[in-house]
Recover the amino acids of this structure.
């Protein structure tokens, strides 16, 4: 593919005056709010999976990272590393997904870059997305605000994304209805923040899943996170598929969920608010913050036993996002 | 390499409170200036070459893209795609180069991401860098400001970077003193803008070299760019090496140069200012803008003939940056 052809794909998909100028960068209007930068590389395999593709993932992942920081996304940039020989139709499909996702969240892709490497030097397409967001007024989020007694909320079922991607890989002959939960959650997050409920901290449980986020919270605030397994929403078919694969759902990625730590007195009201949004229908309180044992995540099983959910040092599932 | 190990390499190299927090993003203070976003993927091969490596290139390339837009760089983010089996020492060396470059330009790396793919799925390391810069007050750059009679200036020798990288590739048994010109040019650019000389447009001649930038200018302002070959600074050894390789130096990348279009009356004074800076010692007026033939770049050779420098549709030299 020639440079012209590639530029044509992206410019026609993403549109916008900034990108069409093909300058080295794009201008964004000044604001009196602080702004947040986030960046993520996407190397998901396969490129297309039930519920999404690398393009939707790249846009949603970046929008969601801004949202959980308490920032309203205003602009995205993206870079592509393409393997020579990649079919133009594949690139067009990915660009269309990114354009659709960018349009649905109302955040333009303003700058980009493309590099082509020889066959065998990259696996299809890698995308890096960077997002800029403005601080949502009056929002004050941080691990230091967490206190014993706070409640832990999840906005939907866990592990859908990772399971859908795994099952879509060549070699897995399991047919299922499981689709990725990949979706933008910035509206859901804004509703949560606007509700006036005491939201103290938010994070999306992507790579490493719910257990990894909870461990980061437990280490960060030096408290214990205690979770009741029976309260954690999970689809039966996801649970069954992961059991078959020998994988623990607490470590499998979601891409359209949010973990929220909120003041105990506000938790039920917050869950009611979240459930009114399409992205939060299955929101639930799943546990609480306790003083000790510090830095631990403890899981109370449905039959009453307790186990520790440790931080995993290595990636259990490579190339899930 | 485990996630912990990788994080340790980057956090210890780049430092800074924002990055150390390992949040999903980083906050930047509000400003009353518009800001500019630029993004670039770096896939240079080999990773290390005389005069730099992929790390210096990633930082300088992004800083320079902001500078030529008339923006003062204030923050960088970076993402890495690493091939499994990459030696830790290689990663540490690249991180150290990025840290040194970021320190030397005074622009912190505030956010990052790392993905590891299996052996054979990526060629060593790919880096995407995104830069944020604030508009330098009173700067007004744009192709629409260019007028017939304006002068074309280059701030140093052409084609050093591309030649150094090519010669460093396996298979080329040519030993030389040629080093990449990879360097940050934001200070040079700021001096040019502060000089009060009528700078109308700037662009760094990276991928596709000087000829590509000049063609973009000629098409953009629908005028002719006329260049005198004898005035274009080029090292003798670079010229000789490229002749040997059958490559045209006008299409070979620089990574520490800037093409400036300036009002004719200010051009000599501007060149004198540029020459006072370490990055601009060999600055020279190399041509002028003419009314016609519109959208063409014309090269007057040392012996008096004229040839057209066309826009090349395909990358002459893949993986040069």
């Amino acid at each position: 593919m020639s440079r012209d052809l590639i530029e044509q794909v992206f410019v026609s998909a993403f549109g916008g005056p900034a990108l069409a100028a093909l300058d080295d960068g794009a201008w964004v209007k000044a604001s009196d709010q602080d702004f947040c930068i986030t960046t993520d590389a996407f190397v998901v395999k396969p490129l297309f999976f039930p519920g999404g593709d690398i393009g939707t993932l790249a846009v949603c992942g970046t929008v969601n990272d801004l949202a959980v920081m308490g920032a309203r996304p205003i602009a995205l940039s993206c870079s592509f590393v393409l393997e020579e020989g990649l079919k133009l139709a594949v690139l067009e499909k990915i660009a269309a997904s990114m354009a659709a996702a960018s349009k649905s969240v109302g955040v333009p892709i303003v700058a980009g870059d493309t590099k082509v490497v020889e066959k065998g030097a990259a696996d299809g397409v890698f995308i890096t997305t960077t997002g800029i967001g403005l601080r949502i007024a009056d929002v004050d989020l941080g691990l230091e605000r967490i206190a014993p007694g706070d409640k832990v909320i999840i906005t939907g079922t866990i592990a859908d994304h990772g399971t859908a991607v795994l099952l879509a890989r060549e070699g897995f002959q399991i047919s299922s209805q499981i689709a990725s939960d990949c979706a933008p959650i910035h509206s859901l997050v804004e509703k949560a923040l606007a509700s006036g409920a005491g939201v103290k901290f938010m994070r999306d449980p992507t790579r490493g899943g719910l257990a990894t986020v909870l461990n980061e919270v437990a280490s960060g605030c030096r408290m214990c996170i205690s979770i009741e397994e029976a309260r954690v929403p999970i689809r039966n078919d996801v649970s069954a598929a992961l059991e078959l694969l020998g994988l623990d759902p607490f470590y499998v990625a979601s891409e359209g969920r949010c973990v929220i730590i909120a003041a105990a007195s506000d938790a039920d009201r917050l869950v009611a608010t979240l459930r009114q949004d399409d992205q939060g229908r299955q929101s639930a309180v799943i546990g609480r913050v306790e003083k000790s044992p510090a830095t631990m995540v403890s899981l109370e099983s449905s039959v009453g036993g307790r186990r520790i959910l440790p931080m995993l040092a290595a990636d259990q599932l490579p190339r899930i996002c």
Observations:
- Residues 88-105 of chain A form the longest helix (18 residues).
